[in-house]
Amino acid sequence: MKLQLNEKMQGDFPVVIPAWEDFDLNEVKKLIPASIFKMLETWISGNEFSWKKDSIEHIHFTNTKEDRLIILIGLGKIKESLNYQLLQTLFAKIYQIASQKKIKELNVLMEHWITQFEDTEEFIRLAAQTFTESAYVFDTFKEKKNDYLLNKVIFVSEQSVESMPLVVQNGIRFGEAVNVAKQLVNEPANEMTPRKLAEMAQKTGNSFDFEVKVYDEKKIASFGMEAFINVAKGSDNQPRLIVMHHKGDPNHPHDIIGLIGKGLTFDTGGYNLKPGEGMGNMKNDMGGAAAVIGTMAAIANAKLPVNVTAVVAACENMISGRAYRPGDIINSMAGKTIEIISTDAEGRLTLIDAIHFALKHERISKIIDIATLTGAAVVALGGIRTAVMTNDQSLFETLTEAEKYSNERFWQLPTDEEYAELNKSDVADLKNSGGRWGGAIAAGMFIKEFIQDHPWMHIDIAGTAMTDKPKAWQQKGGTGIAVKSLFYLVKLLAEKK
Question: FRET partner for 482 with CA separation of 20 to 30 A, picked from 277, 291, 311, 428?
């Protein structure tokens, strides 16, 4: 995709004009050829187009000099300080309109927008990122592929960007990192096995230039990751431990942010079998893994001056004669024993071994785990906000700062010690399920038992990893949730050092 800034409209391809209700066309008069301006002015006055929110008008002007499609987008009463959320919504809407009409080249009058945004380079980068996110289509298994692509967008403006190609490329690559996470979640479980997830992590590492190591089942056993192994042993598809590195701050080698992603490539629930309805969506149970792989791609592409290690314990939770059972007592890499109350509370078992591995072998100093962990988080927050728990309020505050850039929303759950009581066992150090009530919190408190007093934040994306109510930049299926938030979280943490 080509994005350009130009003082004049180019070619004879369509023109998009997005504006708010009190918009005066004279604000962009000098950017529009006189013949088009006169026709447009006459049309608007005769039709009383009000620029109300979500109003869209397609006007085809034809005369001896012009044959031009003009698209007006009304944005309502929002003439205010522009932010990332407003702009991403607008860019996505422009892409959606272009896609519907199969428009491949486009002029967009944006002078009245760019001059109000804080940074012209960021404006262009965000446009490239959003167009790339909006272009994603999951058609891997369709014979007929989607062949539409918006090839060229001219932002008609008097502004300039010195390193325009680099800014555009960075935006495109950031969008591609988000799309990596979408694709990983959308792949069916017969394809996206633990081995395939590891291969995709390596492929992404090669593309975005971050290091990836993969350990097989024998090596996993040698690490003593017994909780992880117990979840994995019911499947014929062997587990994989995926470790990713971005070493962007060699001056502080012991300051390492750890991203731990849940990597259940399919979850039947084990002997605590899930209901058949909706089980097909359990291919998304590696949404946390997808998020950290996409985040590592974004971090590496931006060359952030920070050290980040991501760990994914990838496996399937299946039923067989080898599978673990309710009532079993198992060990963990940290040495704590666990009574199995539910084999469907498996994600926290893989996460705590991945966390202990990252602490022991990778020496991470901060822990951020992300997982499609509990149905209770979905019940509490639906698909609108993502649940968060932390023992370090500054981490959550930085995440809320990241919301400014990510267009993703979070909600903090409590970590009162009374909730830890839910995980107490009569026969082991802990039990893996605290019951129905407070389930999202109990799951987070279970993980908290293994963090060794390090700064920690737990993100439960069970309600937001997939959607059946897509936005313009977020298609039905995998959302790529948290890639942008984690990227900006890490970026802000690096800036605050």
Answer: 277
Tokens 């892409």, residue located: 95
Q: Reply yes or no on whether 348 is catalytic.
A: yes
Active-site annotation holder among 274, 360, 363, 409: 274
Q: What domains can you pick out in the chain, each with its CATH number?
A: 2-157 (3.40.220.10), 172-495 (3.40.630.10)
What's the sign of the alpha-carbon dihedral 476, 478, 480, 482?
positive
Instruction: In whole angstroms, give the CA distance from residue 72 to residue 202.
Output: 44
Cα–Cα distance measured from residue 140 to residue 428, given in angstroms and rounded to the nearest whole number: 46
Interhelix angle 120-135/84-100, nearest 10 degrees = 40
Q: Which uninterrupted H or E stretch holds 199?
A: helix 194-208
Catalytic member of 182, 240, 348, 491: 348
Q: Under 8 Å CB-to-CB from 470, ≥6 apart: which residues?
A: 476
Q: 267: which strand partners?
A: 317
Average the pLDDT over 435-449 and give the result.
97
